[in-house]
Design a protein that fits this description.
By secondary structure, this protein is mainly beta. The protein is about 10% helix and about 65% strand. The protein is elongated, with a radius of gyration of 19 Å.
Length: about 200
């Protein structure tokens, strides 16, 4: 079981033990883009480039008070990326599903829009690696990544319980890449921004 899963279970047990007040929880479902940074490191001696992708995401939060919440956020489906090397074209594709556990601070405002900032820890489960082009037929593997996450966003409360969220999340995401017969070919430095729109309920 992953470290984040253990933390989430512990958190759930603590919340159940303490009891929760009405409207202490929020849940969201969104459609977001994972956009890797422009320079993705060097693999097998060549500059690497990783494209962006959209996927469905979701979150569940508990509010300790009106300002402070803890949020478990994750991809509800995988993000799929192509890896391109200078001079070789597309050499691989990979899927991943990010998950973060964050502490968020929500600012008090007089209107319906409530900005927030957050910081936490994330893990990125890498899977579905496939070689293509010049490396087609060789096995390839990317390590699961762990690191800090930062987020900023705002909730627009359409009603007292329904809101629309726009947010941006920065993940520390680097993965060691191993290719059959070649061994370790380097580190893919993804470090993406994840941004998009979500719909949420407070209950």
């Amino acid at each position: 079981m992953s470290r984040l899963a253990l933390i989430a279970l512990a958190l759930g047990g603590a919340l159940a033990a303490t009891g929760a007040n009405a409207q202490s929880f929020t849940a969201t479902v969104g459609y977001q883009n994972t956009d890797p940074k422009s320079d993705n490191g060097t693999l097998a001696g060549a500059g690497a480039s990783i494209n962006d992708d959209f996927a469905v995401t979701g979150s569940f939060s508990y509010f300790f008070n009106d300002n402070l919440s803890v949020e478990l956020w994750s991809g509800l489906e995988s993000f799929d990326h192509n890896v391109t090397l200078d001079g070789l074209g597309t050499i691989a594709s990979v899927e991943h599903r990010p998950t973060t556990l964050s502490l968020n601070y929500h600012f008090n405002t007089d209107g319906a829009i409530r900005p927030f900032v957050g910081a936490g820890y994330g893990t990125v489960d890498v899977f579905g690696e496939r070689t293509r082009g010049a490396l087609a037929g060789l096995g390839i593997d990317g390590d699961t990544a762990n690191g800090l996450s930062l987020s900023v966003g705002a909730d627009w409360y359409v009603t007292d319980t329904f809101f629309v969220r726009a947010d941006v999340r920065k993940l520390d995401f680097d993965t060691e890449v191993t290719v059959e017969t070649l061994g370790n070919v380097g580190t893919a430095e993804v470090d993406p921004l994840i941004y998009g729109i979500s719909a949420g309920l407070r209950f």
